[in-house]
Amino acid sequence: MFKRKHNKPEINERQADWIDVSVPYEKPESIKAPEPKQLKEDEIVKYNEVLKHFQNPDISVATKPKGAEKAPLTDRERAWLTRECFLRYLRATKWIVDDAIERLELSLAWRREFGISGDNDTVTGEMVSPENTTGKQVILGYDSDARPILYLKNGRQNTKSSFRQVQHLVFFLEKVIDLMPVGQDTIALLIDFKHYDVEGTTSKIPSLSIGKQVLNILQTHYPERLGRALLTNIPFVAWTFLKLIHPFIDPQTREKIIFDKPFEDYVPSDQLDKDYGGKLFFEYKHDIYFPALIEQAEAKKERSFERFLKFGGVVGLSEYDLRGSNEELQYPVHQLN
């Protein structure tokens, strides 16, 4: 698993068929998201138990993990509690209803404390902007399964290890989720450890404590969100880091991690950065890309919330309806196939 492989040489000369891109890249119609999976009879019963719990009009959730103070759900939190959200947590807890409910309430409390619950958020673009001036995280294009791609470029690191680095990653996770197309609820991570000769950057690997903290957030509060993770240009020190963090990665996540395979095997060339064999001629310019990312993601998020209110503002609405363009509800809350 941790055997090093030789990487292909990077192509530096501009090619005639490259596509100029400076902002997040839209998904073409040719890439289709998967259709919803049919549930088994016992899975429907368990889903309905979770749904009923969160439909309780008197339900209150802790304002922070392990905290005693509680508060009712807000409209933004109800919008987060979609049909697909319940299913993700049920799958992550092996369809144990009580565990799924506990994990969902824990995540709601964590989102409140972390500052991403949707009401008076503290993790904002303005806060994390200094972390991304060198383009160390970029959302660009879609993989072959219509997953939005989040590039993590460790070699463009520009800050010292801090909690703001964790906030920065969570901010980008929220934005890549906002940009998901209809029918898709997983992401593709393309992780590049190569050092890029950009002013103010370092190739320093994150500390083990930051790595464990990020991994815990991903596995606890973003279950079933990772579709695949492609890692490339891994130096010796990064292999050491990966070996140290490996025991903390759950088995299902490990199966989705792919080491040193060509990115173009998993991403259409017209959706892939040229540095990895694709056709997108992308050069990160913070004052152009970062505001455009926020604008695009916020527009899609607000559109989904408006549709949430239009369709009744209740928990259990489907992301197919919230992200879609249908005028009538296609997935009623109480009907599962």
From TrEMBL:
Q: What biological-process terms (Gene Ontology) are attached? A: negative regulation of sexual sporulation resulting in formation of a cellular spore; phospholipid biosynthetic process; response to xenobiotic stimulus; sterol biosynthetic process
InterPro entries listed in its UniProt record: CRAL-TRIO_dom, CRAL-TRIO_dom_sf, CRAL/TRIO_N_dom, CRAL/TRIO_N_dom_sf, PI_Transfer_CRAL-TRIO
> What is one cellular component GO term in this UniProt entry?
phosphatidylinositol transporter complex
Q: What keywords are assigned to this protein?
A: Endoplasmic reticulum, Microsome
**SUPFAM superfamilies reported for this sequence:** CRAL/TRIO domain, CRAL/TRIO N-terminal domain
Q: Where does the protein end up? A: Microsome
User: In which domain of life is the source organism classified?
Assistant: Eukaryota
Q: Which GO terms describe its molecular function?
A: identical protein binding; phosphatidylinositol transfer activity; sterol binding
Q: Which SMART domains match?
A: CRAL_TRIO_N, SEC14
Where the record annotates domain CRAL-TRIO, the positions are 127-284
Recorded catalytic reaction(s): these are: a 1,2-diacyl-sn-glycero-3-phospho-(1D-myo-inositol)(in) = a 1,2-diacyl-sn-glycero-3-phospho-(1D-myo-inositol)(out)
What name goes with this protein? SEC14 homolog 3
Originating species: Wickerhamomyces anomalus (strain ATCC 58044 / CBS 1984 / NCYC 433 / NRRL Y-366-8) (Yeast)
